[in-house]
Specification:
mainly beta; seven-stranded antiparallel β-sheet
C-alpha cells in the first residue's frame, strides 16, 4: 500500500475560509520543502521534496485559497485557522488502508513552518510518519 501520493496533498491542503483577516503570508514567489520520516518495521529512508509556486495577494484573500489541492479519499475532520496558523485533523482512505493525520502550520510572514503526524494503518502493518514542512518567500512573482 502506498500513501506517498497522498503526502503531497496533505500539507496545507485546507481552505483558509475561516480566517477573518488574511493569513500572515506575504505574497510572492515561495519555495516549500518537506521532509518525511517513517518509523515502522519497513526500512524506509527519509524523503525530501521541494516545490516552488507564486502566491498573489488575491490568492491569499480568496476564501477558497489553499497551497495544494486536497487529495481524493481524504476527509477533513477538524480545522482551526487564525491569522497566524492552522491546526487540522483529517483521515485519508485508500487501497484498504487508512491514514490519520494531525497537522499544525505557523504563518510567519515571509516564511511558514509546521509538522504533520501521520499514523498509517494498512494490511501491511502500522507506520508512523512525521513530515516537517518549511516554506520561505524567495522573491517577487
Amino acid at each position: 500500500m502506498s500513501f506517498r501520493p497522498l503526502l503531497a496533498g496533505l500539507l496545507l491542503a485546507l481552505p483558509l475560509a475561516a480566517v477573518a483577516e488574511s493569513p500572515n503570508i506575504e505574497p510572492g514567489h515561495w519555495e516549500f520543502t518537506s521532509t518525511t520520516s517513517v518509523q515502522g518495521d519497513l526500512p524506509i529512508p527519509d524523503q525530501t521534496e521541494t516545490h516552488q509556486e507564486c502566491i498573489a495577494q488575491g490568492d491569499i484573500d480568496d476564501e477558497e485559497f489553499s497551497f495544494i489541492e486536497e487529495e481524493e479519499g481524504c476527509e477533513l475532520l477538524e480545522h482551526a485557522v487564525t491569522v497566524d496558523g492552522l491546526d487540522y485533523r483529517m483521515v485519508c482512505r485508500a487501497e484498504g488502508g487508512e491514514a490519520d493525520i494531525v497537522g499544525r502550520m505557523d504563518f510567519l510572514g515571509e516564511r511558514v513552518e509546521g509538522n504533520v503526524d501521520i499514523l498509517v494503518d494498512s494490511p501491511a502493518g502500522q507506520l508512523n510518519m512525521t513530515t516537517r514542512m518549511e516554506g520561505r518567500r524567495i522573491g517577487d512573482c
